[in-house]
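Format notes (please read before filing issues)

Several people have asked whether sequences and structure tokens are stored in separate files. They are not. Every record keeps both together, in the order shown below: the sequence lines, then the token lines. Line labels are part of the format and must not be stripped during preprocessing.
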Amino acid sequence: MSLKRPALDPATIPPRSTSGYPDPFRSRVLPRERRAVGDALGLTKIGVNLTTLLPGKESSMCHHHTREDELVFVIEGEVVLRTDEGEQVLTAGACAGFPAGAMNGHQLVNRGDRPARYLEISNRDPADTATYPDVDLAYRRAPDGAAVFTRKDGTPY
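Then the structure lines:
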């Protein structure tokens, strides 16, 4: 099927298989594959990633955002949603949302034996920061928009 703008096939978007996390956190999420669907469509107010999470990997460190809403929609496979309230299994068709400022740490973990795919959707707030309750990690954006990860006391990795 041939699609014309503004539509596209996400499979045509080059995947990113990197992480901004410093060591030792990077190995907990990689390898993973993210396709920046929102960027490819020219979206500037919301971010949309089509993410493939391999068995045994985590989507991120458990975290919560100060100014960004997040929504996750599972397309294929199975992930475990870990929050401060506990764990629950999400399968294809399930979604979860995390309002900005809610102090509820969350992450996805693939404990299955096959890859899982899901959409990550969030607003893009340059003043957003994130807290990681389970590890010594903090996140903010630099003036140029680049992600900055430090220890909770502000010292660099």
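For reference, the curators noted about this record: DSSP finds two helices and twelve strands in the chain. The first strand starts at residue 32 and ends at 36.
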